[in-house]
Amino acid sequence: MKFSKKILKRASEINSRMIFNLDVEKGIEILDKIYPYLAACKINRTLTDIIGMNEIKRIIEQYPDLPFIADFKIADIPHTNDVLSKNAGHVGFDAITVQAFVGSDAVMAVQKNLDVILVVAMSHEGAKEFISENTKKFCELALNLNIDAVVAPATRTEEIKTVKEILKSQAIILSPGVGVQGGNFGDAVRNGSDFEMIGRTIYDVKNPKEIANEIYEKLPFKK
User: Fold this and answer.
1) Treating both helix axes as pointing N-terminal to C-terminal, what angle do 135-144 and 104-111 enclose, rounded to 10 degrees?
2) Among 35, 122, 129, 209, fewest CB within 10 Å belongs to which?
3) What confidence tens digit (pLDDT) does each residue in 130-175 have?
4) Which residue ranges form the domains of the chain, and what is each CATH number?
5) CA distance 47 to 53
6) E strand map for the chain
7) pLDDT digits over 208-218, tens only?
8) pLDDT digit string (tens) for 70-79?
C-alpha cells in the first residue's frame, strides 16, 4: 500500500494527525504506551545508529498496522541512495525521507525501493540560509517525480502555505518542529499540513502518555 494511503487510513481509524519522533532509546518504551494515539512513527538515524537495524526491525514488527518512516534524510549519489533505501525497506519501513537538493536522479534511485517523503523545507533556523529559498523548486521536483508526501516545517507556517499552494492535493504534508522547537500544536494543520511530528515534548516529560493524550485531543483527523 502506498505510504500516503496507509497513513491516511490509520489516521482516519484512530482520528489522529500525530506522528511520534522515535529518536532516542527511552522512546522505545514510550511508543508502546502511546501507540493508540499515533498515525505513524518516525525513526531517526540517531536511534538506528545506537541500537542497529535488527532491533529496528523487531520494533516495526510489533506494530503491523502502524506506518513507519525512516527519517534518514538521504542526501547522496544515486548508487548510495539505492543501497540505503533497500536496507530500510528490508527491515520494514514504509517510507523514507530524502533531501530534495540532491536532484531527480538521486531521488529516483530511492523511489525504486521505497516510497519517498521529500524534504522540501526544514524546521531549524539554519534552513533559512539555503533551503527555504529553494522550497518552490523542491516542490516542483516533487510534482515532476509524483512524490506523494513532503516535509515542511511547523516552525514556519508561511512555508507550509507555499508548499500547499504548489502541491495542492498531490502530496500530503508532514510537519516537524512542534513543541520544543517552537511550533504550536495545531498551527501546522490549520495552515495546510496533514500531520504534525512530535518527539521531545513527549519523551522528555514525567508522564509521556498523559502529554500524548493531550496532544492527541488537539490533533483530530476528523473535525
Assistant:
1) 50
2) 129
3) 787 889 999 999 999 999 999 998 888 999 999 999 999 899 999 9
4) 3-218 (3.20.20.70)
5) 9
6) 18-22, 40-44, 68-74, 95-99, 115-119, 149-151, 172-175, 195-198
7) 999 999 999 99
8) 999 999 999 9
47 neighbors 22 (Cβ within 8 angstroms): yes
pTM: 0.95
User: What pLDDT, on a 0 to 100 scale, did the predictor assign at position 221?
Assistant: 96
**Catalytically annotated residues:** 73
CB count in 10 Å sphere of residue 136: 15
Closest CA to 81 of 106, 100, 105, 99: 106
Cβ-proximal residues to 158 (8 Å cutoff; 6+ apart), any chain: 191
Q: Which three cell numbers stand for residue 90?
A: 528490508
Do residues 14 and 36 lie in contact, with contact meaning Cβ atoms separated by under 8 Å?
Answer: yes
DSSP-derived 3-state class of residue 58: helix
**Separation CA 35–CA 202 (nearest Å):** 12
142 and 120 Cβ atoms separated by less than 8 Å: yes
Three-state DSSP at 107 gives helix
What cell does 16 get? 489522529
The answer to whether 153 and 123 are in contact (CB under 8 A) is yes
d(CA 197, CA 132): 19
